[in-house]
Amino acid sequence: MRIRIVDAFTDRPFRGNPAGVLLLEGGFPPDAWLQQVASEVNLSETAFAHPLPPGGDADWALRWFTPAAEVDMCGHATLATAHVLAADGLAEGLIRFSARCGVLTAETAADGTITMDFPTSSLTPVPAPPAVDHALGGAPILSVHDTAAHIGDLVIELADEKTVRELEPDHAALRAFAKRGVIVTAAAEDPASGYDFVSRGFFPAFGIDEDPVTGSAHTALAPFWAQRLGRTELTGLQGGARQGLVRVTLAGDRTLLTGHAVTVVDGELLTAP
């Protein structure tokens, strides 16, 4: 059974966010087997997809697993799956995925970029939870927004880009503050840098201390920064030691996420379901 590792939101290997991708011929195997494969791959997400009968609302069924659990939405592993389908000649143009969060689409352009259409996450201003600043190493907090109704992340605005980049949080302590994870963000320091804002994402509750580039988090970061910067087309840089770029376009209740992907491992999974 063929398995790929694809670096998403980057145009070169060993950057962006790696995802496992496994294309299946029939339906999904038992959940326990899917979880074992994801744990063995041991990346932030492994995507599993199989084709659907023609004439329906979607072309492929898609699920995502972290090393510890299944998740409702994942941007970078969706991008990685679309990249694999296009590379294998199994899909052209627009691909429709049926997932736990609804129907998502991904479209590959002539230049190789892939644009995904995801639901925009709503942001609710909330007071900073007690001790969250301590969990973030004492970093000064400017604002806090909750996305519990959608992706389940806490979006925390910090003072500046330098603070975000140098952050050394207490990952175990962060588990207490959000349904899914904690996103920290700040405006870009240099307008000529090629990106408008920076972010980092921490998901210890799902077995991921830090996710290098979280596509789904940008469904909240897009409206957050669109309101502050007065533009609906923005570019975000996410990551600590490993980084990637996400171009976002806010279109009301939908957010378009655009990036590149590159396959770095193409191998064989020897243990069948």
Topology:
Blueprint: E1 2-8, E2 17-23, H1 31-41, E3 45-51, E4 60-65, E5 70-71, H2 75-87, E6 94-99, E7 102-108, E8 114-119, E9 124-125, H3 132-135, E10 141-146, E11 153-158, H4 161-166, H5 171-174, E12 181-187, E13 197-203, E14 208-211, H6 218-229, E15 233-239, E16 243-251, E17 254-259, E18 261-268
Parallel strand pairs: 2-3, 4-6, 11-12, 13-15
Antiparallel strand pairs: 1-2, 1-18, 3-4, 4-5, 6-7, 7-8, 8-17, 9-10, 10-11, 12-13, 13-14, 15-16, 16-17
Protein name: Oxidoreductase
Organism: Streptomyces amritsarensis
InterPro entries: Phenazine_PhzF-like
Overview in brief:
The protein has helices at residues 31-41, 75-87, 132-135, 161-166, 171-174, 218-229; strands spanning 2-8, 17-23, 45-51, 60-65, 70-71, 94-99, 102-108, 114-119, 124-125, 141-146, 153-158, 181-187, 197-203, 208-211, 233-239, 243-251, 254-259, 261-268.
CATH 4th-level superfamily of the largest domain: Diaminopimelate Epimerase, Chain A, domain 1
Number of contiguous helices: 6
- Specify Rg, calculated over alpha carbons: 18 Å
End-to-end gap: 10 Å
Query: How confident overall, as mean pLDDT?
Result: 96
Oligomer: single chain
Identify the overall geometry: globular
Number of strands: 18
Give helix % range.
10-25%
Uncertain ranges: none
What CATH calls the topology of the largest domain is Diaminopimelate Epimerase, Chain A, domain 1
CATH architecture title of the largest domain: Roll
